[in-house]
Amino acid sequence: MNSKIIENIISRKGLLLLVFVEHLFFFYFNNILHKDALVDSLFYYKAAAGIHSLDLFFVYLVPGTGITVLLVSLFVKIFNSFLAVSLIFSVISFTAYYYFVKDYYEKVIYNSFYTITFLMLLFLPSMHWWTAGIYKEALILPLMYFILRRINRLFTFWTIFLFSLLILIRPYLGPVILAGIVLRYRSFINRKIIISISIATVLLVLVFVTGLKSVFGTLNMETQFEELYKYSQTGVAIIDIKETTYWERLIYMMFRPLFFDADTSMKFIYSFENAIFLGWFSLFLYKIVRKKINRSFLFKNIYFTSSLFIWLFIGIYIYNYGLASRMKVMIVPFLLIGVLETIKKTFSEKNC
Fold it and tell me: What is this structure's pTM?
């Protein structure tokens, strides 16, 4: 083990302060400097501010965007200020970063790859971009982390409550995370629990499909795909879901745009982060192939399996670089945490 003390470089509080400054910068950038970024945030705020009757309350009482609007309305009624509500959402999302530092800051550096992975977890710009404001991702990031962090207490009240809230905000995360749990604990979970989780997964899929019906007006999957394709063509930075294969969309989602296809200043900025992440991912694959990362530990890690399933699921329909960047909030942090946990477990096993 490398015995270098990380506290000689920066203390836990100093590192947390740097993360806070970056998060605060993106709050300022999103809400004050870059007005174009407020389209979704303003939609949630205006919709929430417009709920003045019980009838409108029931209109929004549906999983997904409707529940998110109702959650925003709780804060709108109290503060009645867009910036105040946006700041609250930013603080909520920052709690995840607080626990990232608390849980993975180690006085002793395991190896350089652990350090690089840890710093990427804390400082990747797009993760702060999409969580420093009134976005679903500002709620999803801490919710997912606290659920997976408590996974050994799966059937406690708080875990079930947080999981239910997560499903109400983004329904498809339910079956995807449950699939990750089954994969992780398949050798320990008895048959009754697996059957219960499988039934719950089917029910959640039905909720998701029903949600698609409310958007596209049909349960016919072929028709839904056609409607999704038409909708995808109305945006910018299009990933053509008819002309690309599933595997291409997985790559586009995680690593594009890069410098050669960045045709706007914003995509050029994104390309720096994508290039860094591509370099990290290449090194990660190299370490797996060379068995420098314990594959058995890795594929039993609930953070890694959950991020993997979410990535594979979203690749089915991803159609826009901007959307891909947002969806990565549910994947990249947990992929990185899975690697951190695997490195820690590997070193602890070697030194037992």
Answer: 0.85
Pair 124, 277: CB distance under 8 Å: yes
Contacts of 346 (CB under 8 A, 6+ apart): 293, 294, 297
Tokens of 95: 């709690």
Q: What share of the chain is helix, strand, coil (3-state, %, to 5)?
A: 75, 0, 25
Distance CA 64, CA 10 (A): 40
Question: Do the Cβ atoms of 73 and 54 come closer than 8 Å?
Answer: no
- Structure tokens given for 183: 């994969």
How many other CB atoms are found less than 10 A from the CB of residue 295? Answer: 12
DSSP state of 37: G
At 94, the amino acid letter reads: F
Q: 14 is written with which tokens?
A: 């100093």
The answer for residues whose C-beta is within 8 angstroms of residue 241's C-beta and 6 or more apart is: 225, 228, 229, 232, 249, 317, 318, 319
User: Tell me: the pLDDT tens digits for 113-164?
Assistant: 999 999 999 999 999 999 999 999 999 999 999 999 887 666 678 888 898 8
